[in-house]
Amino acid sequence: MRDNIPDAAPVQWTVGDSADEDDIARAVALADTDSTPLRICVCTVGGGTMAPVLALTGTVAAADFERNVLTALLAIRHSAAAMAAHGGGSVICLSSTAGGGSFPFMGSYSIAKTALEALVRVAADELGAHAVRVNAIRPGLVPTDAAKPGLIAADETQRARVLREKPLARVGTAEDIAEAVRYLAGPESSWVTGAVLPVEGGNHLRRAADLEILARKVCGDDTVDRALRGQLPERPERATAT
Predict the structure, then answer these.
(1) Alpha carbon of residue 196 to chain centroid
(2) Alpha helix (H) residue ranges in the chain
(3) In whole angstroms, how far apart are CA 119 and each of 68, 71, 217?
(4) Sign of the alpha-carbon torsion through 2, 173, 138, 62
(5) What is the pLDDT of residues 108-152, one digit of tens each?
(6) Residue 136 and residue 97: Cα distance in Å, rounded?
(7) Is there a catalytic annotation at residue 109?
(8) Among 31, 67, 104, 169, which is least packed, fewest CB within 10 Å?
């Protein structure tokens, strides 16, 4: 699909499960052809669960790990193999501010994004010999149409609490993140690999926002109060994806 734009690159798509290796292999095969070899892969799948650590179940933590880390691993494996056969390329993973430090009440998400950044470093180290670069972007709060009502991006009170921890006191835009992806995908970053680029208004200079109010809204007062007292919740299933 070109939308009548002269010299526009062709766009193709395939429907599949990002956690299914066969689906990933099929998508890479569609993108990688003799006339247009695969040079860029952007790993965007993610999401996390809002809950105190004492309210997290193994099932919830495993699901967050799968969608943030294992999906990226599959994309890296198959895309990097294709890129290596054509002389190299660039893989960009989307991490999160939660991957750069402690984010209370978002434990499983923080763990998963930290693991994703470790994967980026190891993959970059191993694949550099094949001219395949692997980097990550650490986005901050970027309101989008996918924001759920009552959660951070859609709640003015919560948004203000987040902005207090950003020297550049504004929320991000999709364009902010897209420009960072463009840099890591393009020739301007040809000597950059294994890096994590914060695109979050300077949040890494301060600390995570206080998300207790949001955790209470999502998980319930009883679950949070019990966790703060060092007690297991009565209903751990209240842990909710954000």
Answers:
(1) 12
(2) 21-31, 58-65, 71-85, 107-127, 156-163, 174-185, 212-219, 221-228
(3) 11, 11, 33
(4) negative
(5) 999 999 999 999 999 999 999 999 999 999 999 898 877 665 567
(6) 11
(7) yes
(8) 169
Structure tokens at 69: 């880390």
Rounded to the nearest 10°, the torsion over CA 211, 217, 223, 229 is 40
Tell me how long the chain is.
242
The pLDDT tens digits of the residues spanning 3-41 come to: 566 677 778 899 999 999 999 999 999 999 988 999 999
Which tokens belong to 64? 């967050």
Label residue 1 by pLDDT band (50, 70, 90).
Answer: very low
Describe the strand order of the beta sheet including 196-199 as a list of residue ranges.
40-43, 89-94, 132-139, 196-199
**Cα angle at 149 between 13 and 154, to 5 degrees?**
90
**For residues 122 and 94, what is the distance between their CA atoms, to the nearest angstrom?**
16
Catalytic annotation, pick one of 55, 99, 109, 211: 109
